[in-house]
Amino acid sequence: MLRFDVNLSILFTDLPLLDRPSAAARAGFDAVEMWWPFDGPTPPRAELQALRSAVDDAGVRLVALNFDAGDMPGGDRGVLTSTDRFLANVDVAVELAGSLGCRILNALYGNADDTPECRRAATANLRKAADRAADIGATVVVEALNTYENPRYPITSSKRAFEVIDDVGRDNVKFLADLYHLHRMGEDVLDLIDTQAHRFGHVQIADDPGRGHPGSGRMPYRAIFERLEAYGGHIGLEYRHEGQGAFDWRTA
Ligand SMILES: O=C(O)C(=O)CO
């Protein structure tokens, strides 16, 4: 049986952050995920507690959380190679995730040049994040993004993401298979699932073109969902929906 969660950083965005968990629950979702929702790596404890309460009170489960990734609306896509900022966030993010039973933490690589120096920093910082995440039994995931919407992001294929993961060499560092980004980059997502699903730490979906709900584009979602039955983890709904809330195509 497929388990879906809704990404509250791209859906329900017509509502204030703290109202989104309960809106997701009312829409029939029991699991949520989000990009780092705070300004900066170390928000005030009161803001962290307010988010915990909003998730708990809504009766939904946080199943995935991004580490601090900078100004996402402004085009940042991670701070992994900005060592001081990334490491300042690791304890905070892991503590927040742990307090909510969240076991997936997404470390976006950042708009960094793919130089040997950046690769060394990313590898070292992912190891630190992985070792801290292991304290709560969590997995750190590495995501590939498409170049059309993320022109400065260097991890743009499953192959390059697997290289990053292999360099880190930690069992709890795995791949975030965002099928929309990968399909937009021309990857055969059906073959990827067939051959690499054992390396997936998390899956996110949207349709291509348009990044709308499954069925709004040309991706083979019937075949994708058949193959994901064996995956077992949550599938993050990370699509755009122009109306209020989240369009739940499953009930369409
Ligand atoms: O920035 C995006 O498009 C993402 O998918 C981040 O997880």
Automatic annotation (TrEMBL):
Keywords: Isomerase. One of its GO terms (molecular function) is isomerase activity. It comes from the Bacteria. InterPro entries: HyI-like (IPR026040), Sugar_Epim/Isomerase (IPR050417), Xyl_isomerase-like_sf (IPR036237), Xyl_isomerase-like_TIM-brl (IPR013022). Signal peptide: none annotated. Residues 23-245 form the Xylose isomerase-like TIM barrel domain. Belongs to the hyi family. PANTHER family: HYDROXYPYRUVATE ISOMERASE-RELATED, ISOMERASE. This is Hydroxypyruvate isomerase family protein. It comes from Nonomuraea mangrovi.
